[in-house]
Each structure stands twice: as C-alpha cells, then as structure tokens.
C-alpha cells in the first residue's frame, strides 16, 4: 500500500483509542438525561445505539423520516444492476430492542434556546442534549434554470430510494449506443468518490448489455477523489467507454434543458439519453433554519465533542457537518456517531471528554471484482479541529494487481455487511 500505516494497523489504533478511554463503565454509570437524535442514517443510528449500550441511564429518542432506511452506500450497485433495492433497506427494529425510542415522525424545527425539537406531528420534545444528523439537502438555486422538479426527468439519485430506481430504469431502457451523462458538483458534497464509482458500475452494466454506449462525466471540478485509481480501472475494464470532462474544459453549467436532455456549458453542449444531474449541496434545511450553519452552508463543530459552534448542547455529525479533514462518508458518519455518543455520555456524567482517534475508509467498486480505497486516521488538535494524523492514510496501491483489486472488492462487501449489521442488525 502507498501509506505509511497499513489499514490493519490503523484499525488497531482506532479500536484501541475508542475501546480504552471511552468504554470505561464507571465513567458512564452516573450518566442520565434525555438525548434526541435527529436522523436515522449511519450517523444517527450509530449515535443512538452506542448511547444505549454505554450509558443505559440516558433515554434516547431517534426521529426518522420512514420506517426503513435505504443506504446511499451500495446504492450504486442497485443502479448498476448488481443488487436489489431490498438489499440496501433496513428497519429500526434492532434499535428498538435495545431501548431506543424510534419515532417515525421527522423533526421539522430545532429550538436550541428552548432545548426543544418540533416534530411533523406537531409534538414538541425537550432534550438535555440533541444530536443532529440530518444529512444533506440540494441547492437547486445554484443550478441554471431548473428547480427540484427536474429530478423527475434528470434523477440525482443522491438520496437513495425512488431516485435510485428511476436512474437504474432509465439506464436499462437506454437505446443501443446511447449516452449517459453524470454531472457531479464542485466540493464539498456527500461521498466525494461516489459519482466515479457510479460511472464505473454503469459502465460495467453497459459493457454487458449495451457495449457501444458511452458515459460522460461533465464535472464541476478539475480533480476528484481516487482519480488515478479510477482512471486506471476504466482503461483496463472499459476502454473508450468513460470520458472525464473537467471543469476547465467546459467552463461550468450555463443552461439545462431537461426536456431535450441537454446540458449547455460555457464552452460546449452535451446531449444524452440519460442525465444524472447531481446538484450542489448543503447541510439539511433543519440545520440551516436552526442557525447551526452560521453564515455558511455547513455546520462547524468542535472536533472533540461534535458540539455545534453555533448552539450549546447541540451536536452535529455526518454529512451536515464540516469535520476538519474527515470526508463526508457513511464510514465517517458511523465513527462520528460513536465518538459523539461517548462524549455526550461523559458530559452528562459531569466529566470532561478525552481525545481519541477516528478512522475513515472509503471503498469504491470499479467492477464487482475490482475494488479501490482511500483511508485516513484523524484526531482532534489543540484547536479542537479534526486533523489527519501525520504518517497515516493513503490510497490503494497503484498498478496492475488483480488479486489486490479482488481483495479490495471483498473488503468493500465485508465492510458494508459489517457496518449495517452493527447499526441495524439484531
């Protein structure tokens, strides 16, 4: 691997850091209070379940949008025809069995001054501390001449569920020799390598069912995560099928004609049979409206406790937060949920949280048996900003290594099975 610290060593460091100072039972024996968790994704589920396990004296209410959660990780496999949507849907029954009060009644407003959450039903919940893990919303106003309705024609599929199936069905119905455009936004956005894994798995499907089709990536930036590894995989597996068009070569989106399925940029026009339009993003609206983003689009947090820098007793995790050097990924959100839960349990016991390590590993599939990854280890620094730990992290080894690629694909599947079992399994 091209990293000074191997993944196995990094996992060992992270496990020791989280397992040693944070799991001491006497520290949490005096913890009590009510914690409301907004959002039942990787971050919210992780935080809620961890709190119940380490501090049973704390009551936890988890507010979710639906009875089941559909994961964004592995949704690209559904789009590529490799998994069914039912394979990436999970209930909250296991969390309920551990004492989490799961309510399918999403939060519509947060009042940090009153320490209250307003629910869609009209109910109001008071809290001692709140964990906000609502994910992202789209900035449709940042796209030229379109509104949210355009997603019914040009799906974003950046929130898993119906949009995932719409994009899958459009690709499968595409005429022979057709074109797919993927239009990712500029940073920051949820899952930076996601559009390029999507391009890979769409190309895998097309190589089997529509081999003269093309995939164009009309990007909002000039570089992307794991770029060299992706491009090497595309050249090896899908030569001539995937084209990457950086921002510098098209100058940005000028006009979008959904009916004609055409994107006009300042330098060129692109037409396609299917357009996957991924809008610019921000923290979810509940965070914006509660003032948790300050004057920006994302929530700044204290890297030690994940407490908002804009509101006391409110902690923000996952995609809605700017978490120093940590990327926006499912692995990151789940790790942050655990650390945030331990920090809250410590604070509600009247103690000061200790510094620990956090890890992220982001796997991507270029094909079912071809995986790549990037990993990092992070620690809260003296300014309580999460910074990369020097000498750690890195990407998969470059070059022709078929067994390594097969192993990484197996690691990706193993990670997904493990994390979904941990968060949502019995």
UniProtKB/TrEMBL annotation:
Flavocytochrome c sulphide dehydrogenase flavin-binding domain segment(s): 358-424
Domain Sulfide dehydrogenase [flavocytochrome c] flavoprotein chain central residue range list: 164-279
Domain FAD/NAD(P)-binding: residue ranges: 34-149
Superkingdom of the organism of origin: Bacteria
Keywords: FAD, Flavoprotein
Pfam families: FCSD-flav_bind, FCSD_central, Pyr_redox_2
PROSITE patterns xref list: TAT (PS51318)
InterPro entries according to UniProt: FAD/NAD-bd_sf (IPR036188), FAD/NAD-binding_dom (IPR023753), FAD/NAD-linked_Rdtase_dimer_sf (IPR016156), FCSD_central (IPR049386), FlavoCytC_S_DH_flav-bd (IPR015323), FlavoCytC_S_DH_flav-bd_sf (IPR037092), SQRD (IPR052541), TAT_signal (IPR006311)
Region (Disordered): 385-405
Protein name as annotated: Cytochrome c
């Amino acid at each position: 691997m091209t990293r000074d610290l191997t993944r196995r060593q990094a996992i060992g460091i992270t496990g020791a850091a989280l397992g040693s100072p944070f799991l001491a039972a006497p520290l949490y024996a005096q913890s009590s209070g009510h914690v409301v968790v907004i959002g039942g994704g990787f971050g919210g589920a992780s935080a809620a379940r961890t709190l119940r396990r380490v501090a049973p004296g704390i009551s936890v209410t988890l507010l979710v949008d639906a009875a089941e959660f559909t994961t964004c990780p592995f949704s690209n496999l559904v789009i590529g025809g490799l998994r069914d949507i039912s394979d990436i849907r999970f209930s909250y029954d296991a969390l309920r069995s551990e004492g989490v009060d799961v309510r399918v009644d999403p939060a519509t407003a947060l009042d940090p001054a009153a320490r209250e959450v307003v629910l869609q039903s009209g109910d109001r919940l008071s809290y001692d501390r709140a964990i906000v893990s609502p994910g992202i919303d789209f900035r449709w106003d940042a796209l030229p001449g379109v509104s949210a309705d355009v997603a019914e024609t040009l799906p974003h599929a950046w929130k898993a569920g119906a949009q995932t199936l719409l994009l899958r069905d459009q690709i499968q119905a595409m005429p022979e020799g057709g074109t797919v455009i993927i239009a990712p936004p500029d940073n920051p956005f949820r899952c930076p390598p996601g559009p390029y894994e999507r391009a890979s798995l769409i190309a895998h499907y097309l190589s089997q069912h529509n081999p003269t089709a093309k995939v164009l990536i009309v990007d909002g930036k000039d570089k992307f995560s794991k770029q060299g590894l992706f491009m090497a995989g595309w050249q090896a597996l899908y030569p001539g099928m995937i084209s990457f068009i950086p921002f510098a070569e098209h100058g940005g989106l000028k006009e979008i004609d959904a009916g004609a399925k055409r994107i006009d940029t300042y330098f060129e026009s692109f037409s396609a049979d299917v357009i996957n339009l991924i809008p610019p993003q921000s923290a979810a609206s509940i965070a914006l409206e509660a003032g948790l983003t300050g004057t920006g689009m994302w929530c700044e947090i204290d890297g030690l406790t994940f407490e908002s820098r804009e509101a006391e007793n409110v902690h923000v995790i996952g995609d809605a937060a700017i978490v120093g050097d940590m990327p926006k990924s499912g692995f990151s959100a789940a790790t942050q949920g655990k650390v945030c839960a331990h920090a809250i349990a410590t604070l509600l016991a009247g103690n000061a949280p200790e510094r620990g390590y956090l890890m992220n590993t982001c796997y991507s599939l270029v094909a079912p048996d071809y995986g790549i990854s990037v990993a990092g280890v992070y620690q809260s620094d003296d300014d309580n900003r999460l910074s990369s730990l020097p000498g750690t992290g890195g990407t998969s080894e470059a070059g022709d290594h078929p067994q390594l690629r097969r192993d990484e694909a197996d690691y990706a599947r193993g990670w997904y099975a493990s994390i979904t079992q941990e968060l949502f399994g019995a």
